[in-house]
Amino acid sequence: MTKFRVGKDEWCESATFSKAVHSVILGSDWGTLSSSERQKWKMFRCDSLLLQPLMREQMQGANSRNETIERLKNIGFYDRMVVKREYNEKEYYWYGDDEKAVDYEFKYLWDSYICPGTISLDIGTSYGDSLLLIGATNSGGLTLGFELKSGRYMSTEWVVRLNPDVNILPHNFGVKPDGQPEWTEIDGQISRVVPIAKWIQKRLHLKKNKMSYLNHVSFIKIDIDGADVDIVRSFAPMIKEINAAHSSSSSTKFFRPVFLIEWFQKYRQNSPENGECSAEAAAAWTVAHDMNYKVYDWRFQNEFETCEVALRFYHGYMGPKSRKINLCGNGRDELDLCDLLLVHADSISQEGSKLKTVCPPALEISIVGDLKRKWSHFSDNTAAVAVDER
Fold this sequence. Notes:
There is one protein chain. With 390 residues, the protein is α/β, with parallel strands linked by helices. The protein folds into two domains: 12-77, no CATH class; 98-388, Vaccinia Virus protein VP39 (Rossmann fold), CATH 3.40.50.150. It is 39% helix and 20% strand. The protein is built from 17 helices and 16 strands. Strands 5-4-3-11-12-14-13 form a seven-stranded mixed β-sheet, with helices on both faces. The longest helix is centred in the middle third of the chain and has 18 residues, at 228-245.
């Protein structure tokens, strides 16, 4: 990693600065600093480099949940807290901003999208609030998380340690739809970025038994600020190729994951005032139809046959002269009401009045262990290089 650092990054890695930050963050003075002073430290942009080794240092010797919580009390850099909640009759622990931020993720109907014992992906985990619920719903399976920013990624590492019974493997690198793996500067941080669809296809192949486990992927959540549809599109060739090769209705080799994506606000707002959709806003439907998918609201209740139907549903378009009622709003409680659920047309079932997805086959416990051991070597930013160059 060192050869990729330039200018300010080298200064951030200096022994003098590192020692100073350690004394402030872990010393008794940190708790007395005002919020404005803490923000000044964060504005150095050195936190993404220093926070990883700092947190890993604190992780050493934390062999139980209680020890992990005690270690977390020594780190106040992001002013985060341990939040405990019950979900599916079990207790889970988050390293969250606050209790409200964690509770926000409970509104999603995870058990309608995710099949236990399968493989699920969270692309753009942020601090891991939804990642844990995805992993908890996918009990007995394997959940993989991907986060570009180091500080946020380390929170997901703590989430994993706080919940040792959940099979979660967080990864610290960014994603893109195509091209070659590369190092690039994003928001002042030098980060590894990989073409995620190709990367996952390669990683879900075990050489020892020459088997691919793509058909066990049940769910992919994508939240990467506007590039969500591009990432879905990158999976389309695999979905069409694999499903065409296994056209028998009795086959268990289908690759038909459910996608939960954000319908990005910028694209919706750029749509014409008459209620028609811009090309960017309609892109999700173009990709969905190409893969034989249907588009629903995040509650899996309303099918949106066209982009215009969704725009009327979410924004209250009643005609060119009518006042728009924006159900998405700017408030956190309403923003994700504009999430979209993409489900394969042949993977939809109904239980009473409730829609559910048809589950792919569950993984054998031994295969979960094999995949976990394989992927655990490649979880951080540095290891991504070795994986891609093999």
